[in-house]
Amino acid sequence: MASHRVGFCLSVKKRRRMNLTAFADLCANRGIDVVEIDLSQPIESQGHFDIIVHKLSDVIVEAEHDSQSQQLLDNFQGYVSSHPQTVVLDPLPAMRQLLDRFASYRIMSKIQESLGRSICSPPYVEINTNDLSIILEAVEKKRLTFPLICKTRVAHGCRSHEMSLIFGAAGLADVCPPCVLQSFVNHGAVLHKVFVVGDDHFTVERPSLKNFPPGPCDRRTIFFNSHEVSKPESCSHLTALDDSLPQVPLPSDDVMVALVRELRAELGMALFGVDVIVNIQTHTLTIIDINIFPGYEGVTQFFGSLLRHIQSVLESRERPHSDSASLSSGEPCPHT
């Protein structure tokens, strides 16, 4: 294969976690040059790129209140607009919708409608007010059941991991809008993190919140950080499960494949994660969150899978009519 150039536009933290240097060495053996893009410098001067892989979620969020971040974002968008032949993984509009839990939860509801009874998403309501009467009315109208899990509207950054469990109407006073309220589903304290890389997906099991008695009660609101609760080594009291309870079955492979296929088509993305649980009563696969370009911790095949996807995109890009073929097969479009 002729030499190709793939630019990576990642934060310093993301580059280190991914070990981009090691990935670059792997790509070099396949005739692919990996280049770290410096957003603070003109991208045009950094050379031609066949593909740009990025995680600009930080920049997008910060651009709303920071002019410097907005300038960096404008520079990136200006470059991809003037280089339509460059494939962007993943398109900025697709990424933006996952930064907003109001938008991503609507996507989850749509997926549930598409796939029928095999997959569900818990009922939820969008909250934009502190008025308790309005919040309670919305909860009742949507038929949400206690306990409720409360999540920030912004789905990225350290604050996005700050969540709470609300056990009754009085606890709704702890809601901090804008946020999402979602019926909590007992799932045996097991979270399945599904990591997607193009046509491949990998499932890694993580600790999660323990079961709680259904229905309203006087228990005080529990505040927690989801990142800390679901770390591989987590031993939080919130994940401690009664050993006498039966184990929850593993997700069906066929259902998982259908879910990933549907999400890829709906999102137009190749690098994302989806958090799923299995309802302890119905054994239904339940989607609870979608994540942008996750860390892929625990996925030993990540480098090989990412390289295969990059090679696939390069090959389809060089074939005649590759754009229509890519779109029909669920490949991300170059950019929007």
Summarize the structure.
By secondary structure, the protein is of the alpha/beta class. The protein has two domains: 4-89 and 300-328, Rossmann fold; 97-292, D-amino Acid Aminotransferase, Chain A, domain 1 (2-Layer Sandwich). The protein has eleven helices and 14 strands.
Question: Which properties best describe this structure?
Answer:
transferase, five-stranded mixed sheet, nucleotide-binding, Rossmann fold, globular, disordered C terminus, D-amino Acid Aminotransferase, Chain A, domain 1, ATP binding, inositol-1,3,4-trisphosphate 5-kinase activity, inositol-1,3,4-trisphosphate 6-kinase activity
Describe this structure in words.
This protein is α/β, with parallel strands linked by helices and 336 residues long. It folds into two domains: 4-89 and 300-328, Rossmann fold, CATH 3.40.50; 97-292, ATP-grasp fold, B domain (D-amino Acid Aminotransferase, Chain A, domain 1, 2-Layer Sandwich), CATH 3.30.470. The chain is built from eleven helices and 14 strands. It has helices spanning 12-18, 20-28, 57-62, 67-82, 92-99, 101-115, 132-141, 226-229, 253-267, 302-318, 322-328; strands at residues 4-9, 32-36, 51-54, 87-89, 119-120, 124-127, 148-152, 162-166, 179-183, 190-197, 200-207, 222-225, 271-278, 285-292. It has a five-stranded mixed beta sheet. A five-stranded antiparallel beta sheet has the order 6-9-7-8-12, with helices on both faces. The longest helix has 17 residues, at 302-318. The radius of gyration is 21 Å and the shape is globular. The two termini are 28 Å apart. Mean pLDDT is 91; it is low at 322-336. Monomer. Keywords: ATP-binding, Kinase, Magnesium, Metal-binding, Nucleotide-binding, Transferase. It catalyses: 1D-myo-inositol 3,4,5,6-tetrakisphosphate + ATP = 1D-myo-inositol 1,3,4,5,6-pentakisphosphate + ADP + H(+). This is Inositol-tetrakisphosphate 1-kinase. 1D-myo-inositol 1,3,4-trisphosphate binds at residues 14, 55, 161, 193, 291, 295.
